[in-house]
Amino acid sequence: MQKRLIVSDQLLDIMLQRLAHQLIENHVDFSESVILGLQPRGIYLAERLTQKLQQILGFPARTGQLDITFHRDDFRRRESPITANATKINFHIENQKVILVDDVLYTGRSVRAALDAMIAYGRPAKVELLVLIDRRYTRHLPIEAMYVGKYVNSLPSEKVLVEWKSPEKAEDNVWLITKNEEL
User: How far is the C-alpha of 174 from the C-alpha of 180, rounded, in Å?
Assistant: First the structure.
């Protein structure tokens, strides 16, 4: 297995700052906008964006966590059951501009599931997608992000791994992982 750094800690911080400013350009004071991080990994990006927005704006944007487990098209096709995550949305999304946030956009199936799951909480006025990494040329569905941190050309056999700062990790990093082919 080969692991190649594609986004360093410093670059990731710059990307988050840029994404936050793009959101402010389109949503101004967030009075009619909400951010929903997709469980399980989009919530970390949503939290970091919310922190950046609060630093810039001086007040927090409404942010929630959306579980898509039971709306996935592969939910009943897996050999082992998927563990559901918690949905934490303490506001209405009816007539709001919703920004769905995920770390990596790959096939588009998670986003499709998120659109289905979100409807249980109201009918939004508009839905936008923000992703940290867009893996181009891998879409199974016609889904495109409006806000993208970085575009990555990758093979289906490769994996993009986003690591966030934690007690176990000293830095934020994004890696492209390639499996070695055995002959």
Answer: 19
